[in-house]
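pls ignore typos typing on phone
LCS + seq
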Amino acid sequence: MKNEKDLQFETKVVHSSYNSNKHGECLTPPIYQTSTFTFPSMEQGAKRFSQEQGGYVYSRLENPTVAILEDRIAQLEEAEAGLAFSSGMAAVSAALMEVTKTNDHILCSKGVYGCTFGLLQWLKDKHNIQSTFADLGSEEEIKRNIQTNTTCVYIETPINPTMQVIDIPLVTSIAKEKGIKVIVDNTFSTPYLQKPLKLGCDLVVHSATKYIGGHGDVIAGVMAGNADMIDNIKKTVRKDFGGVLSPFDAWLLIRGVKTLAVRMDRHCENAEKIAAQLKKHPNVKAVYYPGDKEHAQSSLVKKQMRRGGGVLSFELNGSYEDAVHVVNQLQLIPIAVSLGDAETLIQHPASMTHAVIPPEQRVKMGITNELLRLSVGLEAWEDIWQDLEQALNTLSS
Ligand code: LCS
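k done
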């Protein structure tokens, strides 16, 4: 077989990081549902602890099923190493803890997921780690917001839920000059659509709950980066804070990720169609979708993403009450947070995923009360549109 690294993405999601000969010739990776591992002797146990000798010790440190997933994520992100966590937030918090200490400063994209915002607030209150939220749209703006104590730039791109896009090479080139680490939350794009490490960032994090898992049945996080950094996080924050993924959940992700490329193609196709339909509807004021040729940053999207992804947001020509009315009329599309599942999901960021952000700041981020977020699923796009259209048509235009 070719070197795994030379395989195409669609092949890597299925085959990489797993050799059935090492796992009882099982086609599908086994679930090593064990908390601990036996040592052949006292001496060998001690050597495993001191790392003089390889071998598993305890599943909070390493587990064979989890290790298959971690290596597969590294292959997909074209990273030296990967690491799995019990949630996306466990991955985000471990990444931030790795690159900051008390009194440091974080430069952050203008918007982030609500709980990431909450975590940044907690870091400020507890450890005096301040954050600045900025547009990061130009060299001048990035440089102006870097302080002497900035140790990290943290970005989501596209940003949840406004779908603004950040120029990763621009950010990383400036940060590198100043020795600042760049973390990219790649949840919305997945490594199929965007590879931040190749664009110069230091660590990629994901809520694997979303597209990596893809089936709405697991809460998980993953991370990828250079071997030293990942090894350090594995031996410190992850081991001692303990946000590890269970072997069964790792297995669900190994299964889910096999179809990532085909799912993403379908998510993108459906989202393109739904965005185009929404734009034509008289009761829709604005549609925010990176895959839309008229998206304000479409040339940047083309530069760093393969396609626009499966999530879009839109604002109604109307009030918050109209938004509530429309959402309550939906029959096929469930009202639920999360994204990246087979089911199309709709939610209201201002009162749900981003409710923790103070209203004034929320509006600055572009999250108005009329904004709705749609995670476009894998159904026939005509059925998704029919449901949206009948709901939108109940508003008088
Ligand atoms: N990063 C992003 C961009 C996210 O959207 C989320 C969760 C997380 C990190 C945290 O991941 P978790 O711990 O939930 O696995 N986003 C959610 C959302 O938009 N709706 O529900 C959860």
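Residues 59 and 155 are 31 Å apart (CA to CA). Residues 87-89, 92, 113, 115-116, 156, 160, 185, 187, 207, 209, 219, 221, 337-339, 353 surround LCS (CB under 6 Å). more later
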